[in-house]
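Feature request, filed as a ticket because there's no other form

It would be nice if the structure record came with a short human-readable summary line next to the tokens. Right now we just get the raw output. Example of a typical job, pasted below so the devs can see what we mean:
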Amino acid sequence: MPLMNSSPIPLCAAALVLLIASVTSVAAERPPNVVLIFVDDLGYGDLSCYGATKLSTPNIDQLASEGRRFTDAHSASAVCTPSRYGLLTGQYPLRAMGGQGVWGPLPTTSGLIIDTNTQTIGKVFKDKGYATACLGKWHLGFKEEPNDWQVPLRPGPQDVGFDHYFGVPLVNSGSPYVYVNDDSIFGYDPNDPLVYGGKPVSPTPTFPAEASIKSPNRFSGALKAHEIYDDEKTGTLLTERAVKWISEKKDDPFFLYFATPNIHHPFTPAPRFKGTSQCGLYGDFVHELDWMVGEIVNSLEDNGLTDNTLVLFTSDNGAMLNRAGRDAIQAGHQPNGELLGFKFGVWEGGHRVPLIAKWPGKIKPGTQSDQLISQVDLFATFSALTEQEMPSSEQKDSINMLPALLDEPSEPLRTELVLAPRQPRNLAVRKGKWLYIGARGSGGFNGSKPQHHAWGGPAAVQFSGHKNSDIENGRLKKDAPPAQLYDLEKDRSQTTNVYREHPEVVEEMKTLLESYRPKKGSQGTRQKKPSPKKKPQAAKQPPSPTASVSPAGRGTTAGTTKPNFVVIFADDLGYGDISCYDSSGVKTPHLDALAEEGFRSTDFFVPANVCSPSRAALLTGRYPMRCGMPVARNENVAKYQDYGFAPEELTIPELLHPAGYRSLMVGKWHLGMEVEGSHPLDAGFDEYLGIPSNYEPRRGKNHNTLYRGKAVEQENVPCEVLTKRYTDEVIEFIDRQQDDPFFIYVSHHIVHNPLRPSKDFVGTSEKGKYGDFIKELDHSTGRIMQAIRDAGIDENTLVVFTSDNGPTRNGSAGGLNGGKYCTMEGGHRVPGIFRWPSKIAPNQVSDVTLTSMDLLPLFCGLAGVQPPDDRKLDGKNILPILIGKDNQSPHPFLCYYNGTNLQAVREGNWKLHLPRTTDDQPFWSKKPDKTKGFVTLKKPQLFNLDRDVNEKQNVADRHPEIVARLQSQAERIRNELGDVHTTGTDQRNINLVAPQER
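Raw output as currently delivered:
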């Protein structure tokens, strides 16, 4: 790793002597005080002195007029937590966690991510005898992981250089909604402790939509502490405490790190500031911030400290284009000025921030500097200010910028700078005038619809009126270069990507960037989760690639983040039930958006026409006959008491565990939760919230009993509340797991009977309660997608939507023959949508045959996990098809079972229905019914699905050679997987007497 600017920049000898003498003279009299005001989400264009016209910041402007304003200053990251890590440690955030890096905001239960042995700016001052305090937002974790939020909250700020801490522990938009005082909860009552995930949760402060979102509280208890917390009083409270602390410490040198929650969402200025700007709550919140700065500066003057105090003002990253930000833009305000991009992204608007320094008599007033500077440089600068040498381990990133504060160097002090976005692949490096970004886009937020909270990608560029040559109509151009190069001297607004015009510069910058990326093998090792004793390990699984003391940045190796996986699995939803598959279906805007932004399969096959076997196949990547679960369970029927999911089967969550994934399942299990070894937690899920089977109270209490893990969460739970409960659980999991790779399996009850949508959706469709239920499913999907966007993991999350089988009488198979309970296409062909913005191109519609069994090998491949080779998998890794590199199905043959009866085989577009009797049929298909296809069949029937997907024209007589070939394939399948009267060579034992009978 190169040591940036390790040799000093030559200065005029006389000037250097004067500079050193000046600082030494001050130090001999009394060391200078330092006040660092670190603002949250304030953009480059959010101050009058940086060009804003729709708001006014007289106190901050005065700071600039009495000091120096920097025009090329940068946060170490475009994200809050890593930016703060860089500021306090003087290290690039990519070095955190033993080289694993910290890339996103810390989740709620994270431990302290700064090693207590690491030198920080707080310790720099403490080592020199200063009093030190941190007031405001922390967001760097408390305690060891996981943080259980029980006092004392140690290690914490007091263990990394601060005598005193008071403030908001994480972020003002996320719980817990309490203040922390030193290492305790402010207002702490030992008889009413704070409990993460406890019930009932304590209230969430609420504000109008124009204030932008505030996440639901995830904590119970600490009611007194929650009552004390008040968003609209937080700014005033922190300011009063800062003024008081300055007055108390006026006789001794001090360092105050004042980290304001302003102007992070929600935008909650004190009432006296509301309506005072011309750009809504956004500007009003900036006005409150300006008042806070004025109060602190006035307190220095009142205590006679002005002349001996260095005041620094800056922001943790650029502005965010949330609801209030969009309102501000529509009012004529540009939060990031002329700069491209927003918070979380690596374009200039994400990290080029205001920086103002005032020190009367030392810093020339009314001056401006274009020195390239990073907030990691404050570590070396403060070390020089206090006449201390930095530890050699800290010198590689932080550069002494004191000459740029006190003098006007003619040469740049810093020539290189690493800039981090939310997504590691978009890591960037600056060298002189050149900025190189290692991938397309910003690597940050990517919302694009009016209801989205987190805008930041191409759509945000269009909305804000900025221009970029890679973007057209709010989307990245298909022929855009694979990476980006900008000449910031000529084009600070990044209007033109000159990647193709300067190949030699690209190669140089690419090599430079790679020199900064963590090297493979630099991470520690994560302790593997032991597999259940009954289950064999998957063959050839590689060692875990990541480990750390904290969740932040987990799942990353050499700058590549493992993707998250979310599977949304509807129940009995037909091919034609949603509007992106059939215009006459229920209007489903969120699912339609999912399809528009990704890949929609028109030939997606599930290997069973009823729920239990379809679920077993999805989790194992194997046909139900092969994994021993071909028949749907009937709960509370004695016959099925030992019939459950085989513990020997390996599942998606089990295979992902060694790669650092945490897995959540919510909803319907229906694989024998009561059978030993067949519970979701036995099948590899870390967390479970759901009901053992269908919602059917008439069949017994377990059909309306909600379980959390293996414990009862609630008995007699109403069906109407389940979808919201499940969705809330998923959103909460995403919120705390967003910096770890995860797998979420959302197994809905919708649209299985009973049709009981929540009251908010009754009457919202034109198709009765069935349609209303689908509307609720669509809304749930929209909420989950919004949570993914809000967490900043949209581009790194693969979302799959499908159904377990075709529809019942209430639904639509979209013109296909049959539905649930039969082996016509309507029973097995269901919606299949894949969305992954960074990998899967939008607006794809494909007729390549795919199956739900493909998910397991797909996820294993993407997670870097070797699928098991001690058993046959029927699924295939379909990534080449999803990303447009292949258009051939990996499935030359498909077999259609009804229970244990092989009823059809398919080769390409040829589908052969096989002879069958009533006795061969499972109990759900024995009675003739026009929706259930062929109950009996004396001769095979052949259909060409390319011309006759409705299976109306039997062409067996015209193609006897095809019939013979497919009959031969059917015999091969019977020998391998079994049939009603045949045990297959690779058929797991079915622990059920007379499986085809009720």
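Something like this underneath would help us a lot:
The CA atoms of residues 942 and 954 lie 5 Å apart.
The mean pLDDT is 90.
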